[in-house]
Design brief:
Elements lengths: L3 E2 L1 E4 L17 H14 L3 E4 L1 E2 L6 E2 L2 H14 L3 E4 L9 H5 L1 H5 L3 E5 L21 H7 L10 H13 L3 E6 L3 H11 L8 E6 L9 H15 L3 E6 L4 H10 L3 E4 L16 H14 L3 E2 L2 H8 L10
Parallel strand pairs: 1-12, 2-3, 2-11, 3-6, 6-7, 7-8, 8-9, 9-10, 10-11
Antiparallel strand pairs: 4-5
Helix pairs in contact: 1-2, 1-10, 7-8, 9-10
Length: 307
């Protein structure tokens, strides 16, 4: 078990909708404020999506991203991991535009196609605040989140060109094979940073046995790497704790879970960060500072971003 760990807060994501909680950050100010609160609570990385500030629908507007990330940068030194996953249904072109626009230190890089199935959530709500919400959830019954080898190659070239470190999102074990191939062909350079994403319907179940399987397979296939875990819903804290016990890092946040304890809606991302930091400290693990995280991940530094 490491004595230090990187804690990431995934602030709003592109999965949950405004009907599901009144606390979901939607506007640029809310997303920036939540990021700063998460930093104050011990997060050294924030994973950033943006939303339409009027309806809460996931968006790809560079103006919205710019408003969020410049606000955050003016207030704290947290590492920003900007999504290239975007929202469901966005084109590859929409998803990748953040790299040339902002040249961030870190960006998410989804490493294979997957059925991201959100449609079961429809049965939990009878009324929705906005018309886009039920349609957005329903379409996932017949939706594949596409990340083909062609797009992996194109995304890899963009990450390399703009000196953005990829946070490689692994939703299932086959994506480790994809990564090994891309390393072999020279598209991805080691050392790599992996995020094991667990518990989504369509991805690998969130169990300790599966986490060990993912880690062991990656270790045998690609060698050394830095890694983190995020898990959906009720699995967020227990899988995060398992990651800490195994020497890994942890992502929490309202992209992955809307709760801070059983039955308690999280009122902020900071509340979720505080929970996992409290557990970490009971285990003798302290959160890294943003400066320490930059060193661990080999990031280019905040002075080299384009915002």
């Amino acid at each position: 078990m490491s004595k230090k760990a990187i804690f990431t807060a995934a602030i709003t994501g592109g999965i949950h909708t405004p009907t599901m909680t009144p606390y979901l950050p939607i506007t640029p100010k809310q997303i920036a404020d939540e990021t700063v609160r998460a930093w104050e609570a011990g997060a050294s990385v924030a994973h950033i999506h943006v939303r339409n500030p009027e309806t809460g629908q996931p968006a790809s507007s560079l103006d919205l991203y710019r408003e969020v990330i410049t606000d955050i940068k003016s207030r704290c030194d947290i590492v920003l991991c900007i999504t290239t996953g975007g929202g469901l249904g966005m084109s590859t072109e929409q998803r990748v535009t953040v790299l040339p626009a902002f040249e961030p230190e870190l960006g998410s890089f989804n490493f294979g196609s997957i059925n991201v199935a959100l449609f079961p959530l429809l049965s939990k709500y009878s009324d929705f605040k906005f018309p886009w919400e039920p349609a957005y959830l329903a379409m996932t019954e017949d939706y594949i989140f596409p990340n083909t080898f062609k797009s992996l190659r194109e995304f890899s070239a963009a990450f390399k060109k703009y000196e953005t470190k990829p946070e490689i999102e692994i939703y299932d074990v086959a994506m480790i094979n994809n990564l090994a191939y891309m390393i072999e062909k020279g598209h991805i350079q080691k050392p790599v940073y992996l995020q094991f994403v667990m518990g989504l319907l369509g991805g690998i179940p969130a169990t300790i046995e599966n986490l060990i399987f993912l880690y062991k397979t990656a270790k045998e296939t690609i060698g050394d790497f830095v890694w983190s875990v995020c898990a959906a819903g009720k699995n967020q804290l227990n899988m995060g704790t398992a990651a800490l016990l195994l020497g890994g890092n942890v992502r929490v946040g309202m992209e992955d879970s809307l709760y801070a304890g059983k039955g308690n809606l999280a009122k902020s991302n900071a509340e979720q960060v505080e929970n996992i930091v409290r557990i970490a400290r009971l285990l003798g693990v302290e959160p890294t500072t943003p400066a320490e995280t930059r060193k661990i991940l080999g990031l280019k530094g905040l002075d080299k971003v384009k915002y």
